[in-house]
Amino acid sequence: FFNTQVETGTYIKESVILPKVRVGKNCKLIRCIVDKGTVIPDGFEIGVDAALDRKRFLVTEQGIVLVTPGMMNQRLHYERD
Questions:
Q1: Pairing state between β 11-13 and 28-30
Q2: Structural contact between residues 49 and 32, judged by C-beta atoms closer than 8 angstroms
Q3: Whole-structure pTM over 0.85, yes or no?
Q4: How many C-alpha atoms does 33 have within 13 Å on its Cβ side?
Q5: Does residue 47 contact residue 66 with C-beta atoms inside 8 Å?
Q6: DSSP 65
Q7: I need a labelling partner for 70 at 20 to 30 A (CA). Which of 9, 22, 38, 44 fits?
Q8: Cα separations (Å) of 52 from 60, 72, 81?
Q9: Per residue in 11-62, pLDDT tens?
């Protein structure tokens, strides 16, 4: 994807990472969809603790975790296409 950055030590499995996403160092992302423009900070885990994910994000019945900039308390730093 255009302008997507994944730092070292990060593990991503069965996930979709959309354009303009930055995933920090030593993160773990499992069965998630990360929306355009989201910044995942260093050491962050998604898809590891289902109860915690349900408090922070939208989780489907199938266990897929949707992560948007708003859910990460971030503003979009680009204009939507």
A1: parallel
A2: no
A3: yes
A4: 8
A5: no
A6: E
A7: 9
A8: 14, 13, 32
A9: 999 999 999 999 999 999 999 999 999 999 999 999 999 999 999 999 999 9
| Torsion sign across C-alpha atoms 71, 75, 31, 64 | positive
- The string of DSSP letters for 3-58 reads T-EE-TT-EEES-EE-TT-EE-TT-EEESEEE-TT-EEPTT-EESS-HHHHHHHSE
- Coil vs helix vs strand at 81: coil
Q: Which domains does the chain have, with CATH numbers?
A: 8-59 (2.160.10.10)
Of 57, 21, 55, nearest to 41 (Cα)? 21
The DSSP call for residue 64 is P
Residue showing tokens 């680009």: 78
Question: Would you say 76 and 68 are in contact if contact means Cβ atoms under 8 Å apart?
Answer: no
